[in-house]
Amino acid sequence: MSVERTRSAAETEALGERLASQLGPGDVVLVAGELGAGKTTLIRGACRALGVEDPVQSPTFTIGRRYVGRVPVSHLDLFRIEGLEVEEPGLLDDYLTADAVAFVEWPRGGGGGIELGGEAPGRLLRVELRHAGGDEREVSIAP
Ligand code: ADP
Ligand code: MG
User: Fold this and answer.
1) Quick check: helix, strand or coil at residue 96?
2) Ligand 1 atom closest to Cα of 58?
């Protein structure tokens, strides 16, 4: 587990870029933190590094988006979903695919006990962002 501090959105994007260099198809990155913590900002940096040119924003009115990069990239926001055992089986299957790097914005802290329904074909990484005063954020990254 690593813990870093960032002092600006640009620094958090840069951290996302570095994180992306460790990622490959099938990997799932669970990004936890409250609203405004910087989840989308970190994912934006990671997507850039993966060759995504489309704008990267929190998906709205949809659970997720797929981007074209050097590898396919999925971006989910589970803000409206209470638990990952969603009523609709297979809801995440279109996004958590073996060919894609997936980022999942998860509004709760910790991420303990979260199961991705066994659909994660690659590695699972957990990132958590916390407000640390002003523009500072504490970012922990753990397997
Ligand atoms: P989330 O997806 O967690 O709701 P966003 O990434 O959409 O958060 O928003 C984070 C907001 O906080 C942005 O407006 C961003 O510019 C601002 N911000 C300020 N400092 C930081 C920082 N160190 N890291 C990330 N975002 C920051
Ligand atoms: Mg967001």
Assistant:
1) coil
2) 2
Ligand that lies nearest to the alpha carbon of residue 33, given by its number in the listed order: 1
Model confidence pLDDT, tens digit, residues 36-80? 999 999 999 999 999 999 999 988 778 899 999 999 999 998 876
Pocket of ligand 1 (CB under 6 A): 6-9, 11-12, 33, 35-41, 58, 105, 135, 137
pLDDT tens digit string along 87-134?
A: 566 777 888 899 999 999 987 654 444 455 555 578 989 999 999 999
CA end-to-end distance (rounded Å), the chain: 7
CA distance 112 to 109: 8
Under a CB-based contact definition with an 8 Å cutoff, are residues 25 and 53 in contact?
Answer: no
- Give the largest Cα separation in the chain, rounded: 40
Find where tokens 């005063």 sit: 133
